[in-house]
Amino acid sequence: MVRVNGTDLNPAWLEPTWFIDADHEAVAAFAAEAVGDATDPEAKAVQLFHAVRDGFRYDPYDIEHEPEQYKASAITSADRGWCVSKSVLLTAAARNQGIPARLGFADVRNHLSTPKLLESLGTDLFIWHGYSELLLEGRWFKLSTAFNIELCERFGVKVLEFDGSHDALMHPFDASGNRHMEYINQRGSYDDLPLDAIMADFASLYRNWGAAGASTAAEAGDDAWT
């Protein structure tokens, strides 16, 4: 641990890992295009947040089983993803741009999920919901990039925004005042993706986990997500 501008800085928050391969050329290219002419960390973080939020359509069925698919460099070439994959990419892109970053996880209850998705899971509890944590001006910001803006408009939920001064976590209510996302349990912060633990818990909780089935919302016939 080193101290920078009065803040304890763990070198791991800037270093690449096997999953968060921030030094990969694909991640570097994505990050450079996303930040554009931005130079200060806060402006870069805002640009990266929006690039990940809206550059990859959210698909809750797009949960890969192969570890290679969770490398940030692999995620850059996708057109869709879910909360964990999108958070891995934002974390890697931030590190590539010199912004200390790590992963955060929580268990949430989504009160507005589709009946088909709830039926496939057997519960409305979504464990290991992923988000990114970025260190800016001595403060950690929690940023969820899961729902792209088009999806928010379709479901009538508030679009998550980040301006460099506030967290961007899922709203408890939608635009009409209905309950939306409820944070049940915080699992803490991680310097790398704990994929083995995530997959083991999924297999334990979700009744159809690991069974052959749809890998996209379109294949599942769950049109709300497509």
Describe it for me?
- The mean pLDDT is 87.
- The chain has helices at residues 25-35, 41-55, 72-75, 83-96, 115-121, 149-155, 195-205, 217-220; strands spanning 2-4, 7-9, 57-58, 80-81, 101-110, 125-136, 139-143, 181-190.
- The protein is 32% helix and 21% strand.
- The longest helix is centred in the N-terminal third of the chain and has 15 residues, at 41-55.
- β6 (125-136) and β7 form a beta hairpin.
- The chain has a four-stranded antiparallel beta sheet. The chain has a two-stranded antiparallel sheet with strand order 1-2. A two-stranded parallel sheet has the order 3-4.
- By secondary structure, the chain is of the alpha+beta class.
- α1 (25-35) crosses α4 and α2 (41-55) packs antiparallel against α4.
- It has a single domain, classed as C8orf32 fold.
Topology (SSEs and partners):
Blueprint: E1 2-4, E2 7-9, H1 25-35, H2 41-55, E3 57-58, H3 72-75, E4 80-81, H4 83-96, E5 101-110, H5 115-121, E6 125-136, E7 139-143, H6 149-155, E8 181-190, H7 195-205, H8 217-220
Describe, in short, the structure shown:
Helix content is 32%, strand content 21%.
CATH class: Alpha Beta
Provide the number of structural domains: 1
| Strand content bin | 15-25%
Distance between the termini: 44 Å
Q: Do you know the CATH topology?
A: C8orf32 fold
Keywords:
8 strands; 8 helices; C8orf32 fold; globular; two-stranded antiparallel sheet; four-stranded antiparallel sheet; alpha+beta; 21% strand; single chain; 226 residues
